[in-house]
Amino acid sequence: MDRTKKIITIKRYSNRKLYDMSQSRYITLAELGELIRRGETIEVIDNETKADLTDVTLTQVLMAQQKQKHKGIRNLVQTQAEILLQRISVPVQQIRDEALRQVERFKRKTDDECGQENNAPSQSMITRLDALKASSDEKILTYLIVQRLEQVEAEVVELRRRIELLERENDDMF
């Protein structure tokens, strides 16, 4: 078994075409990548200057492969996103439908309670509304107190700053 592999020489022309000397034909970057994947040893030389362009060309092969993978990944992500969207949209629609049914039930129950005496609200409805009003009043009052407290704190900080400035000026005078 011969351990030395034959080096495949690829000529690169000024128009960027690649010519495989062993097969006597032009090849693409993809075909060059396939040679590398098969384990072939290659060298790429500039046809005019005879400079070694192997590293540069292999980098181009890698970049071309990455672009292909990127397109493949993009398509895969888009496909998976569409599948996920379909899987999510059904439960979301079911949740929405159930919420609408519950709102309708609540509405009917409220209408039934309010419709007892010439659309007058029932005592239980009045009690619930009073509790809701008291709770919301308490929350609004708390919010206003907190907001005012923050304003007072800011004013205290500003007054302290002014006092410090006045004390410094006073010290500078004496």
How would you portray this structure in words?
- The chain has helices at 29-37, 54-114, 123-173, and strands at residues 7-12, 18-20, 25-27, 41-46.
- With 174 residues, it is α+β, with helices and mostly antiparallel strands.
- Among the domains are: 7-71, no CATH class; 122-174.
- A 4-stranded mixed β-sheet has the order 3-2-1-4.
- Strand 2 and strand 3 (25-27) form a beta hairpin.
- Helix 1 crosses helix 2 (54-114).
Broad shape: elongated
Q: What low-confidence regions span 5 or more consecutive residues with pLDDT below 50?
A: none
Q: Please report the number of helical segments.
A: 3
Q: What separation lies between the terminal Cα atoms?
A: 102 Å
Helix and strand composition category? alpha+beta
Number of strands: 4
Give Rg in angstroms.
40 Å
> What's the pLDDT, averaged over the residues?
78
- Strand residue content: 5-15%
Sequence of secondary-structure elements? EEEHEHH
Strand order of the largest sheet: 3-2-1-4
| Biggest beta-sheet profile | 4 strands, mixed
Residue share in helix: 55-70%
Map the helices and strands.
Layout: E1 7-12, E2 18-20, E3 25-27, H1 29-37, E4 41-46, H2 54-114, H3 123-173
Parallel strand pairs: 1-4
Antiparallel strand pairs: 1-2, 2-3
Helix pairs in contact: 1-2
Short description:
The chain has about 170 residues and is of the alpha+beta class.
Observed structural traits:
174 residues; alpha+beta; four-stranded mixed beta sheet; 70% helix
